[in-house]
Amino acid sequence: MGSSSTRASAAAAAAPSRRKVALYLTLLTLQYGAQPLISKRFVRQDTIVTSLVLATEAAKVICAIILLIAEGSLKKQFSNWTLAGSLTASGLPAAIYALQNSLLQISYKNLDSLTFSILNQTKLLWTAFFTYLILGQKQSSKQILALALLISAAVLLSVGESSSKGSKGGSSDYVLLYGIIPVTVASMLSGLASSLCQWASQVKKHTSYMMTIEMSFIGSMCLLASTYRSPDGEAIRKYGFFHKWTLWTLVPVLMNAVGGILVGLVTTYAGGVRKGFVIVSALLVTALLQFIFDGKPPSHYCLMALPLVMTSIFIYQKYPYADRKKKD
Predict the structure, then answer these.
(1) Residues 167 and 114: beta-carbon distance below 8 Å
(2) Is the residue at 270 inside a domain?
(3) How many CA atoms lie less than 13 Å away from 221 in the CB half-sphere?
(4) Are the C-beta atoms of 117 and 161 separated by less than 8 Å?
(5) Is residue 6 included in any domain, yes or no?
(6) What is the per-residue burial (b if ≥16 Cβ within 10 Å, else e) of 90-125?
(7) Number of compact structural domains in the chain
(8) Containing domain of residue 51, as a range?
(9) Would you give per-residue pLDDT tens digits along the chain (328 residues)?
């Protein structure tokens, strides 16, 4: 009894306050929302994408190491590090995310934007499902309603984004096999990977900073291996890694790196489901910033989605799952 209460109090002391968690969620929402506009302004059209991704992953690792030094836990984390623990906590999610990205690329080429966006939003439900399956984290009936409202808002935002884009042709069997099935599996894998990251941080006590370092390293190795025969790899060998970079290119790279750190913190302390709320809320932030800086007014779909997002966040926070046995 004494040891369990001591562990519980230690865990409570290690966990950040609600205000800090709310700050992480807010900052991540702003970062997600502003990133498209920042990248559009500061990254040239013909910049090599792989160089941006690799630079971002390197910046994430540097940021995570600096934060571990600031915490005074760098030596402890690396002294306790094992290859088996790293592969279990970070290797599997990193591999799943890599497969998910490949499936999304296949699907995007063979589906119209609207269908793709709608099916891609089911990752919110898959995250809730796998969080329950892996962590036993249940949702109340009102929280399930909140998730339904959030997905409805995401669909509305997707409709507004893709209404001007035409649908892609193809036979129904081909679209099913190379469009609908890949994006559905990718959404499922996204929920699984997010839940595994949450499991690694909350159950295995793998810190978010170490997971960021490990997943960035694994992802970078996979990306570097792909450059052997990819068009981006050829471009890097021909023109150099920093082809078409300017000093301003560092702005979106560093901003994306900070976003990666925040994703780890949000997944650890708020969970994968709440991260889904951040992603959808960020679409509204993007619409607002486009109106402020580009003079592009938000669509009717965006205005309809706004109250749905706000209502879903309120309901999800207000009515968490309560175990009846504990109540009794």
Answers:
(1) yes
(2) yes
(3) 8
(4) yes
(5) no
(6) bbbbbbbbbebeebbebbbebbbbbbbbbbbbbbbb
(7) 1
(8) 18-318
(9) 444 444 444 444 455 778 888 899 999 999 988 988 898 889 888 899 889 989 999 999 999 999 999 989 888 888 888 888 888 888 888 888 878 877 876 787 777 665 666 677 778 888 889 998 998 888 889 989 998 888 888 888 777 665 544 455 556 777 778 888 888 898 899 889 889 988 988 888 888 899 999 999 988 888 898 888 888 899 999 999 999 999 999 999 999 999 999 998 998 888 888 888 888 888 888 888 888 888 888 888 888 888 988 899 889 888 888 766 555 5
Best CA proximity match to 16, nearest among 275, 281, 268? 268
At position 156, the amino acid (one-letter code) is L
The answer to whether position 12 is within a domain reads no
191 in Cβ contact with 123 (< 8 Å)? yes
Q: Could you tell me if residue 307 is inside a domain?
A: yes
Neighbours of 127 (CB within 10 A): 26
Copy the structure tokens of residue 149. 């409202």
Which structure tokens are listed for 110? 């063979």
Instruction: In whole angstroms, give the CA distance from residue 195 to residue 134.
Output: 7
